[in-house]
Structures are given as C-alpha cells and as structure tokens.
C-alpha cells in the first residue's frame, strides 16, 4: 500500500516547508519537494494536504491504557482506553502504565491491552511496575522483565512525595534506577524510571540527591506531574535547568487550575523563558488515569478521569494562546519522548521512520486526519477534538 501526501506544510518537527511525503506500508519512504502524483505504483492513494500542516503523530508517554483510579473505592476505578480515545487526539504511540491500583490490575492484563491496541493500529510500549515499591514485575526482577518482555521500556509510574506511595526510601529508588539502567542497557532500551510526583513536601529531593550521591545520571528519571502545584513546578524549573527531564501532565480540571496547578501550555512558556532547554521537556496526558481530589485531612473528595485529548488541547493552546513556535511545541510530544524513551523510528518525519502522521487544518489548527503505521485512522468526526469538558 502506497500513500502520497501532496503539498502539505511539513514539520518534522523542525519546519521543512512545503514537501510531498511518500509512505510505503508502515514506513515513510521519501520526503521531497515534488513527488509526481502520476507515480506508476500499484494501489497508490494520493492525499492532498493543501492548506494543511503535516506533523509527526504524537507520543503520549504516560497513559493508563487499562484504566486506573480506585482511590475512592471500587466504584471509582476508571475505564480502560479505546482506540478512538487515542487517535482522535493525534496520538499514534502510547506508553502504558499502572498507577495507585497495582493490586486489582495486573501487568499481564496491561500487556494484553497493549498488544490489543498494537493490533488495532497504534504503537504501544509499557512501564513495568505501578506506584508501589518493591516494583511489581512479571519475572520477579526488573532486569529480567526488561530483557524478556519487548513492550517494557522502563519502570513506572513509581510514586514518591505522595500519601499514596509505599513511602520508599531513597536507597530503594536508587536501586530501582540502577536495575532499570542496567536492564535497559542489556536490552537496548531506555530503562527510564517514570516517577510519579505527588503533592508532598519532599518534591524532587530524592532524585536530586541520587544524581549527586550516586553514579546514576539524572537523565535516568522522567518525573511526571511536574505542574501539579506551583511549589513543585518552581523546583521543576530548577531541576530541568540543571539537565533533568520534566514531564507535564496535560489532563486537568477547572478545580485543579483554580487551586494552583500550572496549565501545561503556560508552564512550557514559563520554563522556556527561564532558560530550560526545550530538549528536556515532555507533555503526557495521564489519559484514563484518575485525577482524585483529597482534602487537607487526606480524605477523598472525588475524582475526574484524564484524557489523551488533553495532550492535543495543550499542544494547540501552546501554539495559539502562548504563541510558542510550533516546531518547539511539537518537540515535547514527538522527538523529545522518542529520544528520552529510545523509541527508534518514532517522533519525526524522516525517511525510514514509522508512518505516524497528523494532518492539521492550517486555519483552525484542528486535526483533519491521523495516520498510524501507514494506516489512516477512522476518526468519528462527531467526537473529534471534544475534550473531557467538551472544549
Ligand atoms: C496529576 C494528578 C492530577 C493526577 C495523578 N494521577 C495519577 O497518578 C494516576 C492515578 N492515581 C491512577 O492510578 O489512575 C494523581 O493521582 O496524583
Ligand atoms: Zn501519577
Ligand atoms: Zn498516571
């Protein structure tokens, strides 16, 4: 199957200007300024991208594909994701994880769900573990899981500075990072540790201390939810300026924003203004994860459900509201996660890369169509670009 995407304005994420793109099967075959539509190729489909931006499919590096939640009891378990939840947001690659509930949800089910989504057309990877320490594994050892199970690219989301964590010691976190690092090395994977940061006062202290006191590089960690409160966000700016990676959670609620959560598009602008390298920042959605609220006494008040749609919403707001150059904003949802998570052939529009693309309407910056592994994704137009709050 060949697809020729003609006359689009291409961001790879860097701007390539107007280019034609030839897809062959699941790969990008060629990117040139003029590929004749009359190519004598059998079953060639020509798609006009006139008036469209053509950008890499988004990589969502933190999605509860199996559902999550449960912080308010069984009835608050959140639903598992559907393919359309992912593709309507322009997401073509997801990294799945377990969260608070590493007991009622299993890694085997997580692997099964990841394989299901892969068969349905998107690309999936996983973190081994959940909030809890010791880290839950399939084989009993992080290194063995990374070496034996292709979908596992790292460990997470391991919780620190949170009343729902296992209250791990700094040594336990260092040892998890050491195992992830060596397991990753031996299997050619990132071996990244996706760290859940809660609202606790210790914030990033463990990670900062490990980077200073041990041989583990700070880039072994991808701390997420960095924007969840202004106090943590402020430390996150400093942490990122010193070379650490930081991940913004794009799912939010009006209440969280009122209580001081930093809107991801705004947080990106602030970090760039403070001299943080755009290479060190990622966005992820926490899709299908719970967004629970607790009162000052730690009592559960209620919860919302995260959505992949928020990843697109915050990308669009960063471009339109924060007026950040699109090529820069694209990095945080394409080439940065691809590089940090060592996802080869992902996160860019380059010959030989997977054919994961989004066609955006240039006037509205809304999604026109999504192609994943060379297959056009059927988007149910009526739900397209409708976020959790119907935005
Ligand atoms: C960043 C905040 C707003 C949401 C965040 N979500 C998770 O960590 C996932 C959730 N606990 C689950 O297991 O489904 C949180 O709970 O702190
Ligand atoms: Zn989390
Ligand atoms: Zn999460």
From TrEMBL:
A single MF term (Gene Ontology): metal ion binding
Keywords from the named record: Hydrolase, Metal-binding, Metalloprotease, Protease, Zinc
Cofactor(s) required, per the database record: Zn(2+)
Cellular compartments per GO CC: cytoplasm
Taxonomy, superkingdom: Bacteria
Residues annotated as domain Amidohydrolase-related: 53-375
Keyword Chaperone applies: no
Subcellular location: Cytoplasm
Role of this protein: Catalyzes the hydrolytic cleavage of a subset of L-isoaspartyl (L-beta-aspartyl) dipeptides. Used to degrade proteins damaged by L-isoaspartyl residues formation.
Protein name: Isoaspartyl dipeptidase
Lineage start: Bacteria, Candidatus Moduliflexota, Candidatus Vecturitrichia, Candidatus Vecturitrichales, Candidatus Vecturitrichaceae
